[in-house]
Amino acid sequence: MKLSKKNIKARIRKGKIDIKKNVKSFFGWVRGAKLVELKECEFSKDPVRPELDNIFRTSYGRKIFGVKYKGEIHAVMCFAFTNKIPKNVKELDLMSRDAFLQSANRDQKVGMIAIAYTVWSNKKGGGKLIVNEVFKMIKKSNHLNRLITMSPLTEMARNFHLNNGAEEIQVNVETQNFEYKIIK
Q1: Rounded-to-integer distance, Cα 178 and Cα 171, Å
Q2: Tens-digit pLDDT profile for residues 86-106
Q3: Is residue 115 classed exposed, middle or buried when 0-12, 13-18 and 19+ CB atoms within 10 A define those classes?
Q4: Can you name the residues that pair with 81 across neighbouring β-strands?
Q5: What is the C-alpha to C-alpha distance for residues 114 and 120, in angstroms, rounded to an integer?
Q6: Which of 19, 28, 147, 164 sits at 20 to 30 Å (Cα–Cα) from 139?
Q7: CA angle 83-85-87, nearest 5°?
């Protein structure tokens, strides 16, 4: 079967329409999603730190955020608030406890640094979306002045943060830290 110029152009137009539909359906969920604070998460699904239970994730001022779309959570990010940069989970625990106890003297404003210690997504684009939404939230806060990650020592984590605008600030024995610059 020989294709004429007319048939070729028609196929190209149809291909462009199909691509536009796919892009719209892929990013459509992103526009309708919103950031919510969670009381708990399915920590067994956490690919980074499944050993940390919901009690750890919600005690001493620590928080869990999710990206919700049509009643389902598609991405999760867990935070601790500290005044220094932790190099491992033990330091994260001690520093967030200390910042929480100090907050009693500061109108319950826990720590000046938000430490994102785990993030995962069940849907393509969810990881980047939750990072961006949390970044906006932190920029609006009055007491937080830094957003730092405590990421695993993997190329995937490194590439994710560098590709999303973070700067590598240190590599530790068990983790690596990246900073998303907050300009208020």
Answers
A1: 9
A2: 999 999 999 999 999 888 776
A3: buried
A4: 114
A5: 17
A6: 28
A7: 145
